[in-house]
Amino acid sequence: MFLTGAFPAISVATYCLLGVALTLCFIFYFRRPGKLPPGPWRLPLLGNAHQLPSKTPWTVFGQWAKTYGNIIHVDLFGQSIILVNSQKIAFDLMDKRSTNYSDRPIIPIAAMSQVGDTFALQSYNDSWRRQRKMIAQEFTAAGVSRFQSLQEREWRLQVKRILHNPDTIFSEIKLRAGVIAIRALYGYYVRTPNDPMLSNPIEVIREFSRLSTPQTGLAFRFLPRWTPGVTFFKEALDYERLHVAATVAPYEWCKTNLETPKVLVPNVCCDIWEKNSVLDQDGHKQVYNALSSALGGGLDSNASSALTFFMTMILHPEVQQKAQMELDTIIGFDRLPDINDQSRLPYVRAVLAETLRFMPPIPLCIPHALKEDDIYEGYFLPKGAWVIPNIWNMLRDPIVYSDPMTFNPDRYKGDDKAMEQVKNLVFGFGRRGCPGRLFAENSLFVLIATTLATCNISPGLDENGKQVLPNGNYTSGTISFPEPFKITINPRSTNTDALLAEVHELYE
Ligand code: HEM
């Protein structure tokens, strides 16, 4: 039977179902033990989907904080999302209440592909614990020191290459970050940017960065995969294939060549095998997913910070000069700086901290999720809600960082505690905090110190020979990069060439 007249032809059964659904929503709303945090007005079904920005959302969420406060609730097609804009709230929730806030939400692209089995994206469960332990044990201070000479050589090579061809700076930085990560994790030495051992994971990360934003996929999560016209499902399928290839190939290579000198040691994969001598099929799966998480973490995030460093140096010659004075006085001209020099170079350490503050590579972190309902300052935060810490906004809080939009390493006044505060935000929160932090810091330090000891950086030139400054804009997506810029790089002293000439590719 159909109702007709002013209404479209809809069956009575449909009206009944709608009525039940509305009543359930009503009951659910009033069953809540508190009100949700404030947020922009939402539409039925869509929620705030129409207001979520696709470009640099961290800046818009920061603006929202001025209207709604530092804890905001938005709704995306029925999914609750809590935006956290202040460091106090972030630590209150994700550090102090970490038992409840260490879950990951079900990110649609992860649920639709095996990337969801890598611990970076897994729920807070036993598989996560097992994989995380494998990686955390390898990336302790002692663990990362095994890779110092690798990091020093590769970043020096990077400087040598871009001195000859500054236009390759973007591709060269990605190549070096990849060479270091793949060599350290699997004992494999990448020789060209086209090697699929490198190009596949880079593509995986690029696609993940694009497909994992809350706006992408959440709308389609209740639809069957065969729904016509939804490109997301096809993209998810392609992504799955790519992810499996990128994850399994280096692992299998290491397994096949284990007894040969091709596998360079030490490496994380062999160390994990040694510690877990008997591995069944599931055990192997856990190891390659753990390694894949670490590879995902080690590529683009480091490359993003390296590019931010070069961009800010173009804009701040006075910072270069000050760091160079420190390097010249402490290190001199007879050798290149190395990772062990960190404790002696406070200003270079400040340049590193300021680079991370100025643009955290993962500005909205990886979302956490609530395992159980919670109340915070009278607000109800529902089980399963995504928690998105706006790290970018926290690092631009004018109460903590005066004149926050300016790149200024002097703001730390040499105080390592203040620099540490920055890193405690940039590398994430609580039990989910980045396990690769020490490794990443070593890489960035040696890159910054080597570059400043050996090069002068200035703006690139356009086709008319006129200087062009970087526009300072950043790409959107989970990992953010400076938009392409031109750069001029000149050697600082005659000795520079001689010192860098000593540095060679592993197989040169
Ligand atoms: C500048 C470089 C890096 C930055 C800024 C960075 C930042 C982050 C952030 C913000 C998170 C999310 C933390 C959270 O959910 O609260 C994270 C997680 C992670 N990072 Fe990094 N990271 C960097 C380099 C690395 C490196 C070199 C590795 C290699 C081991 C790595 C491996 C991981 C892994 C495996 C996770 C997931 C942890 C988990 O879910 O338990 N990262 N990182």
TrEMBL record:
Source domain of life: Eukaryota
Family matches, as Pfam families: p450
Gene3D superfamilies referenced in this protein's UniProt entry, alphabetically: Cytochrome P450
Signal peptide per UniProt: none
SUPFAM superfamilies (alphabetical): Cytochrome P450
Transmembrane segments: 6-30
PANTHER family xrefs: P450, PUTATIVE (EUROFUNG)-RELATED, P450, PUTATIVE (EUROFUNG)-RELATED-RELATED
Name listed for the protein in its UniProt record: Monooxygenase
Species per Swiss-Prot/TrEMBL record: Crepidotus variabilis
